[in-house]
Design a protein that fits this description.
Blueprint: H1 8-23, H2 34-38, E1 41-47, E2 60-66, H3 67-70, E3 76-77, H4 79-82, E4 84-86, E5 93-96, E6 102-106, E7 115-121, E8 127-129, E9 134-135, H5 137-140, E10 145-148, E11 155-167, E12 181-194, E13 199-208, H6 212-216, E14 219-229, E15 235-246, E16 251-252, E17 260-267, E18 275-283, E19 294-297, E20 300-304, E21 314-317, H7 331-335, E22 341-347, E23 352-358, E24 372-377, E25 382-385, E26 404-406, E27 409-414, E28 421-427, E29 433-439, E30 446-450
Parallel strand pairs: 3-29
Antiparallel strand pairs: 1-2, 1-30, 2-4, 5-6, 6-7, 7-8, 7-9, 10-11, 11-12, 12-13, 14-15, 15-16, 15-17, 17-18, 19-20, 20-21, 22-23, 23-24, 24-25, 26-27, 27-28, 28-29
Signal peptide: 1-21
Keywords: Signal
Protein name: Lipoprotein
Amino acid sequence: MRKYILTMKNLVFTAFLTVLSACTTNEPNVEPDPDLDETRWITIAAAKMGENPGDGNGGTLIYSLSTEDAKNPEFSIAPFDNGFIVPSNRTARLQASEDGKLIFNISYAGDTGGNYTKYTVEGGQTFTPTGSEVSIAPYVGTAPRWIKLFDGDKTGSAVYVSAEAQFNDNGTPDDVSDDTYLRHEATMGVVTLDLVNSQIINFEESSIALSAEEEALGYYISRIDMPTLNAAGNKLYIGARLSKVDPSTGETDRNGDILPSKTIVLDYPSLTNPTVITSGVGLGNTNGYRSINAFEYNGSVYQANQGDPNGSHILRIGANNQYDDSYVFSLDDALGVEGAYVLAWRPAANGKAVLAYRHNGSAEGVAGAQGFFALIDLNTRTATKLDAIPYDPDFYLFQYQGFAVDGNEIYLTQAPVGQNGNIYVVDTETGTVTKGAELVNVQGSHFIGAF
């Protein structure tokens, strides 16, 4: 495999070859390096500090290395010094092809917000633009929530929801005043994007409602994210967060009960006929944050919930497009903690996954609560904290975006805010953890995943 380690000797030799090539007119064409085509690249994403340590608002840089180098603790990379700057005003929203050879990005906020770009991964800081750019901003705004569907790297999907309070405006019935709160009208927009040809496939807007009883109590869907395609390829699941107002005033109410977890189900690819399904196991939100929050495995979709007062669960949606309440996987119970909160997770093809989490016992670090990694098994509903990975109060995983999967191995990054760390590789079959390449950090910044 080709390694991207440049020394002065390399540079001089490269310059010599360049001059020689320029002076030679009858040399045969050079064949491509077959090792380069076979390399499984691991792309590391780094979020630079904006104004505060760990905020990630200073932009995103990426750097790729081979799996061989990623597993080598003697190898060192410094993405903040020589990484490729991903176009984005704040933290970029990144996705990778299944083979690691392509990086997909949609810029988040700013003048380029909503712009889709695609890059060929060529090692080190070399990411070559491929295909054309397309803006999804006219459909879902300049700060879109988007994800790559698992359909062979063909399609991406972005979503938004706009919720507007509805008040009685005609004085009827007679005993209701004009400013009486009625409900929130939540309008959802969903766009699908052809990742291969860089063009919009479809866009639909729909009204999404909760039950009349829930809406009468002031609940409404306020944020959606993480579209996931079911095994049959005919339904799209979208995670949802609920908010609440006091129906007597229409003002925000943060003291209400946390309702059971919900997911929006749409026909696919038409993006029509939305319905809302409700879990009988988990409470709280299913929209996640920066990372993919739901995955299809063995015919079902497995989804994390957040904000559950009983700790996060892994929930299951069956082939009938309804929650399977016979599947109970409590991470509090499995990990022996209280208040487990899933920050990010990713399964391998064997149903075993690496999970990033915090809990009520997490230390408070410079940027927020301390994070941890665990190996979980969707089949046995068990979880084990990965103690071979070092932890620090400043190890912050709230903005974590991705894990790189290569067969049964999962690559992750470990580095406290502003401190150096390493890549770690988890063999999900055996649970073995391998310490890999060093990650060189800079003040106030952190690493947000491997792709």
